[in-house]
Amino acid sequence: MTATIRPGYAYPLGALPSQKGVNFSVYANKAEAVELLLFDHAGDAEPAQIFHLDPARHRTYHYWHAFVPGLRAGQIYAYRAIGVDAPKLGQRFDPDKVLLDPYGRAVAMPAGYSRVAASAPGDNTASAMKSVVVDNGTYDWEGDQPLRRPAAGTVIYEMHVKGFTRNPNSGVPEARRGTYAGVIDKIPYLQDLGVTAVELLPIYHFDPTTAMNGMTNYWGYQPIAFFAPYTGYSASYSSTQNPLGVLDEFRDMVKALHKAGIEVILDVVYNHTAEGFGPGATLSFRGLANDVYYLLDESDRSRYADYTGCGNTFNASHAVVRRLIRDSLRYWVHDMHVDGFRFDLASVLTRGAKGETLPNPPIIWDIESDPALAGTKLIAEAWDAAGLYQVGSFVGDAWKEWNGKFRDDVRSFVKSDNGYVAALGQRLIGSPDIYGHEVREPEQSVNFITVHDGFTLNDLVSYNGKHNEANGEENRDGSNDNLSWNCGVEGPSNDPAVESLRNRQVKNFLTLLLLSMGMPLILMGDEVRRTQGGNNNAYCQDNEISWFDWSLPEKHGDIFRFTKQLIAMRQEFGFGRSDADTLLALLKKVQAEFGGVTPGEVDDGYTSHALAVSRKSPSGEQQFYVMVNAYWEPLTFTLPPLAATAPRGWECWLDTSRQAPEDIHALNELARVSGNVYTVGPRSIVALVARR
């Protein structure tokens, strides 16, 4: 391969193909020289061609650029940057290191990729990741667009692309297991369950070799290419090693999910990169403009400031980094048709150049005010690893928040901890104690009981303590504060009484989650009691510990049916639907009122474990009465009187103390309640409905 070179243009950044060739542009403000490398194959030990960019012809301000005629999509390329290697000044140039393009749309992953070689002195050409030229104008979307489903009525399913179908018992053809294509095969399952959105754990290309003890970083929270889908989740890449096939497979998945009415939300990591930990690995940003892309320790600029717990912190307050983040988000919405983003450790993005908390962080407002992102779901994990906690105070009007208080308070109440009656009441009605001071919709609160980080729902009711020995850290990793209760036996049990109680507790959690105002999020497999064997930090477990076990929908079909019915009735009855009302306006409309065993009389004493809540549907067509008993003995609740407009009286919708199929009923199966009292079983929830 022989190519010529022309000056090219500084804009746009990345590699832009045209009919005549490809324009390359990269930011490297303090580099003294930049080399553009072209490769025939990802694992080549030497470039097929090296272009030494002339600063007089190929540099405009801080941007190095070149146009290479004759190149096409699929061309593998990378950079080397030469400059003063001065760690004390924050500069880490290494002329031996091959660097990914920060704007590269695809990644070529060599079979012999080595993080060690990227971290140690010397040339790493053969073992380095490389970028790939992409032409996004050739894919046939068949008229597809992001769904733009309102937050009201959204039910999110947090899932891992690989883990969803990797298990041999998935029924997915072997070549498609654990891939974007495999997800397509299981869309009927998601439709049957009734979820309206999938939230995918990170799919931006990441370094899977960052886990300790030689294990795999399974979760993917070590990104290195913010525009490129991960090759390891591609059936196409596994079979052909064609990096462009990865993009088509990802887009096929998005298009298929959209046809099924399911949105795609990406879990994105803009707070740190895979270049952190120890001495650090030079993969991309570090070798191009280290002191621009990262926050550095002001007392020693050879060290990274670490507000993420991952060895470095992305400098989201810098204009260049802000533009990269915004351009990346635009790309995934415009070119890849995703519907939203969940921002990992989003509070990091609110920190300034010295790590200080900014009252109006520019990147947050950049994202919110970008017209290209209007209507896109924006969900913040509103805390970071350095103690910044912003649940209820995250800046911005469009941003939703993971409500960590919902998780903690509901867990505490259901396990019968003292003093949580009042807190549970707030969580059931959209957490007005957290969000009532702002003009917010109820869906400001993204409610969850479990997510990838921590116990599964099954393990929450099966283990008192974590069991992370398989991680190789002598069970030191993972949280020690899980607010879990094993129902009397640690781990799996054959005792029918224990299993019955666990089933009931799982249903209790799901009921509170799906009947609360806000946007609910369900962890993959919780609907069938998926277990991780008590591992609450399975980030490095790329095996049966983390994979979805497809025998469980049959084994725990009662839980699946219960969850499915809850979701369907939530949508039917309008639980959580705001109809554009603010939270406070909706609360007035539905007339939410609390009680205890007696209507209107709340016992919120320290040792109380009972709560009742009455509310109407937003339309006013239905009234509900939900009775929660976290006590270990039955409690008899007096029912509130009904108006003459509800001639059928109270009807039982669900009772978690009952065995399936009597635990929950469809709308046409509701049983009338006789009398004005109802005995709620120990550790059970009952929901009644009255219809006009």
Question: What report would you give on this structure?
Answer:
The chain is of the alpha/beta class. Among the domains are: 14-138, Immunoglobulin-like; 591-691, Immunoglobulin-like (Sandwich), CATH 2.60.40. 23% of the residues lie in helices and 19% in strands. It has 18 helices and 27 strands. The strands form six sheets. Strands 10-11-14-15-16-17-18-19 form an eight-stranded parallel beta barrel. A six-stranded antiparallel β-sheet has the order 20-21-22-27-24-25, with helices on one face.
Could you report the average pLDDT, rounded to the nearest whole number?
Answer: 95
Number of helices: 18
Largest sheet properties? 8 strands, parallel, barrel
Number of strands: 27
Coarse morphology: elongated
Strand content: 15-25%
- Which strand order do you get reading across the main beta sheet? 10-11-14-15-16-17-18-19
Distance between the termini: 77 Å
Which CATH class of one domain applies here?
A: Mainly Beta
Query: Radius of gyration, Cα only, in angstroms?
Result: 27 Å
The proportion of residues forming helix, as a percent range, comes to 10-25%
CATH homologous superfamily name of one domain? Immunoglobulins
The CATH topology of one domain corresponds to: Immunoglobulin-like
What's the architecture of one domain in CATH terms?
A: Sandwich
Outline the low-pLDDT stretches.
Answer: none
